[in-house]
Design brief:
Pfam families: HATPase_c, HisKA. It is an enzyme of class 2 (transferase). This is histidine kinase. By secondary structure, this protein is α+β, with helices and mostly antiparallel strands. It has three domains: about 1-190; about 225-310, Helix Hairpins (Orthogonal Bundle); about 315-470, 2-Layer Sandwich (Heat Shock Protein 90), CATH 3.30.565. It contains twelve helices and seven strands. It has helices spanning about 1-5, 10-75, 80-105, 105-125, 130-210, 225-270, 280-310, 325-335, 335-340, 360-375, 435-445, 470; strands spanning about 320, 345-350, 355, 380-390, 390-400, 445-450, 460-465. The strands form two sheets. The protein has a five-stranded mixed beta sheet. Strands 1-3 form a two-stranded antiparallel ribbon. Helix 2 (about 10-75) runs antiparallel to helix 3 and helix 3 (about 80-105) packs antiparallel against helix 4. It is rod-shaped. The protein starts with a helix and ends with a helix.
Length: about 475
């Protein structure tokens, strides 16, 4: 059964689960019909019995009156016809008495009434009116007692019927609760058979997207989901191969470019200084273009190497650091480029010590300062803020310039993605700066966003965990 469920298709599993959930419902409907039918039959039988008993009692009451009248008339006018009428009434009453006594548990009262009836049948012709009076009176009183007994029996039957209905309702209610619980368990089981592999698929997809270790456990479930899991496993393996090839290509290409690039820059420097001979203005212009291209190529190579080292760093090494010292070193390295554009740093550091990885945090600072210097307005300040917000370490680097459209903010943190805003320096961007910032923040357990602030046109905010255990 288990193997058949594992190899079943998703459609078959859904249909099977639907029918399994319907089984308790069908049982509940059948039990409800049976209980209702039983109550109905019992109520009909009791109603018919009650009607018959009431009719017999009423007939007996009427017959007692007829017997009393016929006997009294015979006592006054002793004729054979009256005697025959009285005898017929007594015989009919005897039959009704027998039927009523068969349903009544008061055997003693029935026995007394039979004796009184036999007395009337045997002696009503010999007794005169005075002698007959006490016999008839007792006969009438016993009939009244018998009528009262029948009514009491009907009330007891009605109470028993009510108790039977209540008991049937309680039993049906308990059966309903049990069957509903069984139905819920079957539904949960069936949904689990579908939700469990879907959850594993979600884990697999997240592992592929976040470049985590792909789960080794084979997905077990419907055939379509199992096949999809194997396709995701193949896709993960293929992406790992492509990632390995990409890293190898970046590493080899970067390193192989550095040697000829160094030779080109040295040659351009010799030509610029005219150590190998004088150059005319046109030649100097060409050499200037070569120098700019060599510098541009050198910058791209350094960024590729830096990005490659960042991808290979799997785990940060946090330690307690002085943020003031980190800022001082970073600003000193970027002092020349900031002076060329007449930009100043306005620092607001509210923390005396931070627990983070020095290399990753410095890379974040370098790329954010370089981004603010390149895209910021001429003679405009660059705001740098470091503060604590709730349980996070927040770094804001803001500048004035062209605001970044909301639709492009998320994509700018992807590798080799550049915005539509032009740089104000002489270097053409490669689209790796903000990607390096985002990857460094991710390695530190945080994330980077572009936010809106009132004091600047553009602000890049990096949120990092504050506690040591979140960095480990």
């Amino acid at each position: 059964m288990r193997n058949s469920l594992q190899t079943a298709s998703l459609r078959q599993l859904v249909i099977l689960s639907f029918f399994m959930a319907l089984i308790p419902v069908a049982v509940l409907l059948w039990q409800s019909y049976t209980a209702l039918n039983g109550v109905s039959q019992y109520a009909v039988a009791e109603a018919e019995s009650a009607i018959s008993s009431v009719r017999r009692v009423e007939n007996m009451q009427n017959m007692v009156v007829d017997i009393e009248r016929a006997v009294r008339q015979f006592a006054v006018v002793k004729t054979p016809a009256l005697a025959k009428v009285a005898a017929n009434h007594l015989d009919n009453y005897q039959q009704l008495l027998q039927q009523v006594c068969n349903n009544v548990q008061q055997t003693e009262l029935c026995q007394l009434q039979r004796q009184q009836l036999q007395l009337l049948q045997s002696r009503f012709q010999q007794l005169d009116s005075k002698q007959l009076e006490p016999v008839i009176l007792q006969f009438r009183q016993q009939q009244q007692q018998l009528t009262q007994t029948v009514w009491s029996m009907l009330e007891q039957n009605l109470q028993a019927q009510q108790s039977f209905v209540v008991e049937s309702q309680q039993q049906l209610a308990w059966q309903t609760v049990v069957l509903v619980i069984i139905t819920l368990l079957l539904v949960l089981w069936a949904s689990g058979r579908i939700a469990a592999p879907v959850k594993k698929l979600d884990i697999m997809i997240r592992a592929i997207g976040q470049q985590h270790q792909f789960p080794d456990e084979k997905l077990v479930g419907p055939r379509e989901l199992t096949e999809l899991g194997e396709q995701l496993r193949w896709l993960s393996s293929r992406l790992q191969q492509l990632e390995a090839l990409r890293l190898i290509l970046l590493r080899h290409a970067s390193h192989e470019l550095k040697t000829p690039l160094s030779s080109i820059r040295e040659g351009c420097a010799l030509l610029t200084e005219q150590l190998v001979g004088p150059l005319n203005p046109q030649q100097l212009e060409v050499v200037g273009l070569l120098n700019g291209s060599a510098d541009r190529l050198s910058l791209l190579t350094e960024q590729l190497l830096d990005y490659n080292r960042l991808l290979q760093q799997a785990k940060p090494e946090p330690d307690w650091l002085s943020p003031q010292q980190l800022f001082t070193d970073c600003f000193a390295d970027h002092a020349l480029s900031l002076q060329q554009r007449e930009q100043v740093i306005e620092l607001d550091c509210q923390l005396s010590a931070i627990f983070t990885d020095a290399t990753l945090f410095r890379r974040i600072l370098d790329n954010l300062i370089n981004n603010a210097q390149a895209y910021g307005s001429q003679s405009s300040p660059v705001w740098v803020k470091l503060y604590q917000q709730e349980h996070q370490l927040v770094l804001d680097v803001a500048n004035n310039g062209n605001p970044i459209p909301t639709a492009l903010r998320h994509s700018l943190f992807e590798p080799f993605q550049r915005g539509t805003t032009p740089r104000f320096d002489a270097v053409q961007g490669s689209g790796l700066g903000l990607s390096i910032v985002a990857d460094c923040a991710r390695l530190l357990g945080g994330h980077a966003d572009i936010v809106d602030v009132i004091y600047a046109d553009v602000c890049i905010r990096v949120r990092l965990p504050l506690l040591e255990e979140k960095l480990s």
